[in-house]
Amino acid sequence: MVISDDDRVINPEGLRYDHEFVRHKTLDAVGDLAMMGMRFAGCFRSYRGGHALNAKAVRALFETAGACVIVSPRGALPFRLRQEDVVAAGPVS
Description:
Elements lengths: L19 H15 L4 E3 L9 H13 L4 E4 L14 E4 L4
């Protein structure tokens, strides 16, 4: 466990890894995107995000017309996937 205040790590042993906070936030985002129930193919950017903000972004992705398209993986992507749907984020033409 890492304990910090606004500008420094408080626990005596410090951080375990370089960029530990970034790693943690990245894993959180990957997990939150996985909760969509389908694979995500796109770009996800977050600034000081967390679980609540990630969930809000996913909700907005599905609720905003033209923000994403759900595609079948057969022939849609240049690599093999299991037979699950894929969310492709980005402008839909």
